[in-house]
């Protein structure tokens, strides 16, 4: 029994470690990426949203930049764009590099200056020279290669990047919510740094989004299901009593405490993100907070095992608990959709949930095996005797056993 508990706890630690370190893979996807033409770049940085990466080499002798812009998680029916805004910020005024699949089925790259919000990214000359531009599409990822002749006297610029759909040969407007409204920042080609619109290397909002995601995924999405597994399967082992109860309470209360912190960061993000709404994610989050709070109070009001209301409390506790777990997992995926670009986090969480589910299935089968074995042992210990269904303890022995 002790070995089983140690195995479960060690497995849980490994799963949580996998989830917590998955963000490192995105950085590795930048620095270790190999281009098909074996082209190398001196600098690479993952852009904070939209599953995008910027590689470049700056040549101070002629003030040019060779770059590659990668935009993953798209199809060849989409368009992608990256650009510099010399005198402004965000998309209006941006001098863009655009890639899409044209009517001939070829991947086409061209330049397009953005003059207003209703742009269709028509081809045109930029305010600086682009001697070379090309693009390719592979593994659901567009890559734009280009050489830019930077405006004299500057190496730091505002940048913006986007993606949208293509209908026929018409480029559709990009999404007006979520990460498509956050895809802007700064880039300094000389020192290799990216920043927000205000120039910091990582925006405080971006940090809060990541903290919010990790807190809620670990609490509601991992600890809650683990606590349910402890309660359902460990109590069948006599040696695990009352250890299973303390493990269950520890998991659920820790999940609630960490989840409240994640909920608070979500409220702050919502108040700081005027016009950006994730209604489903927000509504499920509010529901989870309310149900989780009810569960905490229910623990304080738990009747004794022999109390006449204990059956009704058990029904309530199990129904609310399983509802919270289901909604938690759904909302974690809603959160990943809001982050749009943290694909490695999503894959890691899917692996965690599959592992917890597999452990639950194995323990379910093992639990039933033990229950059936005990019933057979009890029936062999007290065999039925007599005729017409009579038994050895119809004289009152059975009543004494039940008592």
TrEMBL record:
DOMON domain ranges (all copies): 50-164
Function per UniProt: May act as a catecholamine-responsive trans-membrane electron transporter.
GO cellular component, one term: membrane
Keywords per UniProt: Electron transport, Iron, Membrane, Metal-binding, Signal, Transmembrane, Transmembrane helix, Transport
Subcellular location: Membrane
Cofactor note (record): Binds 2 heme b groups non-covalently.
Topology with respect to the bilayer: Multi-pass membrane protein
Residue intervals passing through the bilayer: 213-231, 243-264, 284-301, 313-333, 348-371
Source species, domain of life: Eukaryota
Organism lineage: Eukaryota, Viridiplantae, Streptophyta, Embryophyta, Tracheophyta
Residues making up the signal peptide according to the UniProt record: 1-25
A Pfam family: Cytochrom_B561
Protein's name according to its UniProt entry: Cytochrome b561 and DOMON domain-containing protein
InterPro entries for this protein: AIR12_DOMON, Cyt_b561/ferric_Rdtase_TM, DOMON_domain, UCP037471
GO terms assigned for molecular function: metal ion binding
Annotated spans, Disordered: 380-403
Ligand binding (heme b): 212, 248, 281, 317
Obligatory cofactor(s): heme b
